[in-house]
Design brief:
It is built from eight helices and 21 strands. By secondary structure, the chain is an alpha+beta fold. Strand 7 (158-162), helix 5 (170-187) and strand 8 (190-195) form a beta-alpha-beta unit. The chain binds adenosine-5'-triphosphate. Adenosine-5'-triphosphate is lined by residues 17, 20, 22, 40, 42-48, 196.
Length: 375
Amino acid sequence: MTAKDARIRLEGVAKKFGNVIAVFPTDVEVAQGEFVVILGPSGCGKTTTLRMIAGLEAPSQGSVFINGKDVTRLRPGDRDIAFVFQMFSLYPHLTVQENVAFTMLAQGLSSQEAMRRSGDMLRHLGLGGLVHVRPGNLSGGDQQRVALARALVRSPQAFLMDEPLGTLDGSMREEMRETLRAIHNRSGATTVFVTHDQEEAMGLADRIAVMKDGRVVQFDHPRTIYDNPVNLFVADFVGSPGMNILAGVRRGEWVDVPALGMRLRVAEDGDSEGITSNTASGGECRLGVRPENVLLSEDGSPCVVEHTEALGSHNMLSLRTAAGFLKAWIPAGIRFREGETIGATFLPSGCRWFDGASGEALPWKTLEAVCRPTR
Ligand code: ATP
């Protein structure tokens, strides 16, 4: 399968429904052949953004470009893109194979070639045994996979997908995710994929656009988003669980973290110009630490073991501090007694800092963590 590549560019694209601003002016550029995932909680504007790219929703302002051409006023059918919704519809009177072949036939492909391609795609998606079945006799999950096959078998400039794996259950969802990514790698088609599932986004995307309240708050590679979230929202939303967040107070080069009786020495990371935050020299801040960067050590700050959750390859430890819980990954073989007191500290390179008022990331690096301060 080959697909023509396409660049997609949104220039100041925004959408209002009456008084509701669904999407604030947004600038996003998706490169040719890129797999971009729009990620965010319910109601943040993901679907509306995708529908504006598809031409199913007219922007209130701004322009949509595909391959440098302004398509803002073009109808969906004239944009050469394939759209897969979570809510799908298959033709009930056609077999699975005929459903998948339908659009190709409508595009003028010979019946023999359309049936051959649809059969190949169905076999590729593990649906080879269902080619002669009618949709009414399929499970919801299989219907969803057939709808995916129908979109993927075309060779459009771009694929737009709105929660296409939403109705599939655990293992099937994971399998389809891998298949989708493999098909993307093979076809090289530009893809924009909407989901509220951060794990799905991390597994699929070349880049993720994280949305909140109608705005793209971070647009970057999954690893960068995971390692360096731009604000507390992204720090918490991305990761399973999200970052541990602890309140801190900065005094000069030290930050006190009262929940753990811990002090951390920080420095401005590189150029400190541009720090306008009130936490630059004092005031409240937040420390963010991923569970894998929580270290257990006899010299650490004392915490009480609340719970150990076995997750197969590792355990998730829940530690009670003076102000809430701290999550830590530990190897699968290690277990602690509930109620036991153990010491916890943080890997300095894994510490992230956020402004206490705005929640925006601060360009601080951590030099050391002192768990039993003498002063
Ligand atoms: P979900 O994951 O629940 O589908 P979403 O992130 O895709 O959410 P949108 O469906 O784009 O969010 O909706 C963004 C906002 O715009 C919401 O407040 C929604 O209620 C509103 N909205 C969307 N479509 C319409 C519409 N046709 N008329 C009025 N308001 C709408």
